[in-house]
Amino acid sequence: KLFFTDYGNAAKVERCDMDGMNRTWIVDSKIEQPTALALDLVNKYVYWVDVYLDSVEVVDYQGRKRHTIIKSRQIRHLCGLAIFENYLYTVNSDNLSILRINRYNGTDVQSLARLDNAKEIRVYQKRTQTAVRSHACEVDPYGMPGGCLHICLLSSNYKARTCRCRTGFILGSDGRSCK
């Protein structure tokens, strides 16, 4: 699944398959300007920052169990969001500090460091990476990902895929080649 935010005409948090199909709104009310998103892959939760509402919220992958982690002027102008263990990590774009927020109670907010110019944050640690299983876009014996000439996108699950073509090409009637 691909998770993303949009704050155009109607602000929302959405998800879809990697090929763009099955687009679903998971949050579309009481939301104004969602700008950063992080996933808890183990428990299947989506966290986001709303910079207009000065809040960090969470919901499960189906849009249920929504609650506010923290809502405070203390967390104004946040950009970027990452999860590791019990904490959310984010960047305050006003003073360029890295903040750590307890994701279960929201009361424990600490400034960890200051940076010259940061707009995004990522956690790289082996435990945060899920194991990769075989999938429909693996390279075939001819060197083509999922049997697709140009681009292979996972579909509704890891066993299904959709082929796409680069700009200027159209998909052939076989659903794999590009012309």
Describe the fold and architecture:
InterPro entries: 6-blade_b-propeller_TolB-like, Cueball_EGF_LRP_Nidogen, LDLR_classB_rpt. This is LRP1B protein. With about 180 residues, the chain is mainly beta. The chain has two domains: about 1-130, TolB, C-terminal domain (Neuraminidase); about 130-179, Ribbon (Laminin), CATH 2.10.25. The chain has no helices and 13 strands. The protein has a four-stranded antiparallel beta sheet with strand order 4-5-6-7, with no helix packed on it. It has a four-stranded antiparallel beta sheet with strand order 8-9-10-11, with no helix packed on it. A hairpin with a 4-residue loop joins strand 4 and strand 5 (about 45-50). The radius of gyration is 19 Å and the shape is elongated. The mean pLDDT is about 90.
Q: Cα-atom Rg, whole angstroms? A: 19 Å
Share of residues in helices: under 10%
User: Per DSSP, what share of the residues sits in E-state strands of 2 or more residues?
Assistant: 35-45%
Q: Would you identify the CATH H-level superfamily of the largest domain?
A: TolB, C-terminal domain
Count structural domains. Answer: 2
| CATH C-level of the largest domain | Mainly Beta
Number of strands: 13
SS class = mainly beta
Would you tell me which CATH topology of the largest domain applies? Neuraminidase
Low-pLDDT runs of 5+ residues are none
Number of contiguous helices: 0
In which order are the strands of the major sheet placed?
A: 4-5-6-7
CATH architectural grouping of the largest domain: 6 Propeller
Instruction: Give a quick account of the main beta sheet: strands, pairing sense, barrel closure.
Output: 4 strands, antiparallel
Whole-Å distance between the termini?
Answer: 28 Å
GO molecular function, one term: Wnt receptor activity
InterPro entries: 6-blade_b-propeller_TolB-like, Cueball_EGF_LRP_Nidogen, LDLR_classB_rpt
Pfam family, one: Ldl_recept_b
LDL-receptor class B repeats: 1-43, 44-87
